[in-house]
Amino acid sequence: KQPGALKRKLQSPHGNPAVKRQRKPSLSTFRKGATEADRREKGNLPQKPVPRKQLTDNRNESQKSKPFIKTSSLFKNNPDIPEIHRKAVQQVQENVFSTDSFSQLDLHPHLVSGREAAQLKTCFFGVQKQTIPVLLQGRDALVRSQTGSGKTLAYGIPLVQSLQGMESKIQRSDGPYALILVPTRELALQSFDTMQKLLKPFTWIVPGVLMGGEKRKSEKARLRKGINILISTPGRLVDHIKSTECIHFRRTQWLIIDEADRILDLGFEKDVTVILNTLNTHRETRQNVLLSATLTEGVTRLADISLNDPVSISIADEIQKVLNPASQKDREASSSSNCTEQENFAVPEKLKQYFVMVPSKLRLVTLAAFILGKCKFEKHHKMIIFFSSCEQVEFYYDLLVKVLAGGPELEQPGRSSPSSVSLQFLRLHGDMEQEERTEVFQEFLKSKTGVLLCTDVAARGLDLPQVTWIVQCNAPASPAEYIHRIGRTARIGCHGNSLLVLAPSEAGYVSLLASHKINVSEMKMEKVLTSLMKDDRFKLHRPGRKKSCGTNPQEVRERATVLQTKFENHVHSSEGTVRWAKKALQSFLCAYTTYPRNLKHIFHIKSLHLGHVAKSFGLRDAPQNLTALPAAGSKKKTKPRPNRSDLLKKTHGKRRLAEILRSEYSSGMDTKVRRKKKR
């Protein structure tokens, strides 16, 4: 019975076969498996084949661990970057400083001390050396000099010297003795600040400023109290001439037009004519001064209207006479016979100019890498970036603030790594409120570091100290505008740098600059992108990957792709940001169609790849619903005239159509049947 009982115990209660007992693995079994594994590693035993199901599972797990980048390849299907063989040109230089000093002039001692108190140097600038004696003699002058050469003091010092030395002491209620016209509000504030410093010792002379965006009521109150040196933009002054009764120019002895070429470029020629006619009706005799960095046809025409036997002052021409008198005589002879000769521009001596060729797809990541390299990983850099429209400034300001200035590294306190240094972005354009524009201007003026994104509203006359880099994302429409943009750095003998971003199809712009004696050097895009290696936020994390030494080109491309993905993720995070990006893209395309005819062979709208350009605005695909872009100078399209067959359908029969066409009171286009309104 015992064997039968044992057999029943091994069977399951449901009648199924008995479950076999598993033997516990012994120590010898473990040793045997270990020796076999060692022999397989050494190659003595063949590897066991891995099941196919296990292989597919491993592949799926590895794919899940890798980050999914929702972007097309940035480095494929790009146009080839051409090699530019440019001739080395000798740039026109100006002697900014002079060996003479202000002590040699017959100036009021308080004026000299006040000038030194304004933290200005005791030596002459070249333009001041030639301009101040002429203006002290009471002569009219046409002054042409490079940006940042001290033109404001060139007219400010003789103006204050003349007013403080008048026999009858000036009273505030006398009204304006001097009128200074400037093109922009920021330049008006800067000129007003300079005049305040010069007038500190002479408290009875009151300066004042009029500009758009301010309250007319407060400006009228200041005019009623009295302003002796009036600084204004042309449009605002014409507004007060037409609407303010208390403004008069009976005692005006000075008319100064600063940045005259820019005033004409902004379309203020009619306003300047109104101001000149008003001044002539009140007082015909006065001293007139025109100042500009470039001498255009419009400035020459304005000089003929406003100046009386002027003295022409040009620092570059004086240096050219000394260096090469023969070529100067030839140039004068040719310019007298041919007025369309190309103008050569003077460039600051300590300004280094670069350009970088970037395909449209890589424009955004290249700009971001350049900002990081100069303003985040290097100390004491201050940068201005120029765009062609207000919409681009607003869009890129929001995008760069959210992606570059943010990040998890910046939110952790106590981090001392280079990536924890915060970036400060500011914006400035014409669509902003005046109060905000003034606040941004003053903040950037006082800061030691920062990035200012702006339009050409900040391209003329502004003296922004410690600016080390000028970046032009969109090429200017003329070499003269290029000179004014880069003139925001390397001012008054300081060092500065500029970078011009060009597409491969825009390579001809370098030759255009060389024809105007402007020498630019090439900076490689690959060198700019290597700055991304310093920021671990854009590192592509892969398990088991060794840390690379130096700058691996493949890793640089991977980091650029990660950065582009961050930009695109932010843009596509909401419908509003996508709509904003499309609006900025459309404004860029509209601005691209406005290049002048002589530059159409370089900047043509058909040379752009819309999908590649869309990537530079963080869009993954080319937008399909952009409105039709008008060509440069084209008029609005009129509605097409309807066909006779369409009229027949709308008028419900031939008889009604015949009545409309025969009626002498009908235009022939009244296709809708009039119905009586129910009362």
From TrEMBL:
Protein name listed in UniProt: ATP-dependent RNA helicase
Domain Helicase ATP-binding: 132-313
InterPro entries with a match to the protein in the record: DEAD/DEAH_box_helicase_dom, Helicase_ATP-bd, Helicase_C-like, P-loop_NTPase, RNA-helicase_DEAD-box_CS, SPB4-like_CTE
PROSITE patterns listed in its UniProt record: DEAD_ATP_HELICASE, HELICASE_ATP_BIND_1, HELICASE_CTER
Function: RNA helicase. May have DNA helicase activity and RNA helicase activity. Probably have ssDNA and RNA dependent ATPase activity. Plays a role in ribosome biogenesis and TP53/p53 regulation through its interaction with NPM1.
Protein source organism: Onychorhynchus coronatus (Royal flycatcher)
EC top class named in words: hydrolase
Domain comment as written in the entry: The Q motif is unique to and characteristic of the DEAD box family of RNA helicases and controls ATP binding and hydrolysis.
EC number: 3.6.4.13
Keywords in alphabetical order: ATP-binding, Helicase, Hydrolase, Isomerase, Nucleotide-binding, Nucleus, RNA-binding
Residue segments, region Disordered: 1-79, 628-679
GO annotations of cellular component type: nucleolus
One Pfam family linked to the record: DEAD
Record bears the keyword DNA-binding: no
Gene that this polypeptide is encoded by: Ddx31
Biased composition (Basic residues): 1-11
Biased composition (Basic and acidic residues): 33-43, 54-64
Subcellular location field: Nucleus, Nucleolus
